[in-house]
Recover the amino acids of this structure.
């Protein structure tokens, strides 16, 4: 066998191997091919405790840095920073055909819906006196899914039942709709809009610049999180209204950007107005009682609360009475907002070498567990 035959034989073997690899890849699903090309498992290693961790810790360190920075900003000069504890937030979700793209697994629409659900629950945990409303954009029209309310379950249920993508996106129609809902809000309420935008264009019926100026005059803080690329009109909207604009790089980055809007932000000086607010503490309706709910205009049995001023029935708290306009809350809602008014001072980490440091000025016990720093409890392994 000469060299040419050997070369042909080698080339034939190579071609057969390539065909086998192509056949194997054709048998895989799209998401499996992405993982085969990515080979993300090669970037993992086992640590001393037997757990898997990424070799490159830059992403984890960056996330920890952002959390420390946000924590320090929230606790820095707490007496000088006024926060919006009563927030009225509308979440605008882009459900145009751009939301069906699969660059976010399994799609942008599903990824956004998951993160919005987690955000709603975290939002009401951080802001018990606030309210949320949902608006979607599809076919060039803005649709109101839910009105402003304080029930996370109702918002999540309404969102999951309307997950369909179609048509183009219209940013102006969404802003006009939200502006009409937020403009009558009292001056003590902080009016905010969070837009999750997937499209790279907007199909508007008029001049969107006039709409942006109306939002600015009505003191709406508009923030945008893009899922595609940076857009000038979105950046201009955020700059004019005092919001923030960012573009998500991947699923984890998108979740991080959305969750940054859960804690109450510092109030803008020109928008911050302090007023005394009349609040009512309603009593729970008696079991077996039948009355018409002022929220849904239906007869309800047992469930609900009674307004102390007009004796109207409401379904959930916090809310505003539809009859007399009184703000209705419960005492736990006010108690949970207390840590935003008077945040805990940053902790001073004290190592074992600093236990006898004279700069501690007599502090010899832990702030959390009150355990003495001079005679710490031995670790569990040393006891046994």
């Amino acid at each position: 066998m000469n060299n040419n035959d050997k070369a042909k034989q080698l080339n034939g073997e190579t071609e057969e191997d390539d065909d086998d690899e192509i056949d194997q890849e054709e048998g895989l699903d799209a998401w499996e091919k992405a993982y085969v090309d990515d080979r993300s498992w090669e970037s993992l290693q086992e640590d001393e405790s037997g757990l898997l961790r990424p070799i490159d810790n830059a992403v984890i360190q960056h996330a920890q840095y952002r959390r420390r920075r946000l924590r320090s900003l929230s606790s820095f000069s707490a007496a000088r920073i006024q926060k919006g504890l009563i927030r009225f937030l509308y979440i605008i979700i882009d459900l145009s055909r751009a939301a069906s793209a699969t660059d976010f697994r399994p799609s942008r629409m599903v990824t956004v819906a998951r993160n919005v659900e987690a955000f709603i629950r975290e939002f009401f945990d951080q802001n018990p006196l606030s309210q949320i409303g949902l608006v979607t954009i599809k076919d060039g029209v803005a649709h109101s899914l839910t009105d402003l309310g304080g029930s996370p379950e109702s918002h999540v249920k309404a969102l999951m039942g309307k997950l369909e993508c179609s048509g183009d996106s219209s940013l102006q129609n969404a802003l006009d709709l939200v502006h009409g809902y937020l403009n009558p809000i009292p001056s003590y309420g902080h009016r905010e809009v969070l837009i999750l935008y997937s499209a790279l264009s907007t199909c508007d019926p008029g001049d969107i610049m006039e709409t942006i100026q109306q939002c600015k005059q009505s003191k709406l803080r508009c923030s945008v999180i893009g899922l595609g690329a940076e857009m000038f009109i979105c950046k201009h909207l955020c700059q004019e209204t005092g919001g923030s604009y960012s573009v998500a790089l991947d699923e984890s980055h998108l979740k991080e950007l959305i969750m940054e809007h859960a804690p109450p932000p510092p109030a803008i000086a020109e928008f911050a107005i302090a007023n005394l607010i009349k609040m009512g503490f309603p009593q729970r309706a008696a079991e077996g009682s039948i009355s018409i709910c002022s929220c849904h205009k239906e007869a309800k049995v047992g469930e609900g609360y009674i307004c102390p001023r007009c004796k109207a029935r409401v379904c959930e708290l916090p809310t505003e009475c539809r009859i007399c306009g009184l703000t209705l809350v419960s005492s736990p809602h006010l108690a949970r907002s207390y840590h935003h008014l008077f945040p805990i001072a940053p902790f001073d980490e004290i190592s074992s070498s600093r236990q006898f440091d004279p700069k501690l000025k007599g502090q010899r016990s832990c702030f959390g567990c009150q355990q003495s720093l001079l005679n710490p409890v031995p670790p569990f392994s040393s006891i046994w």
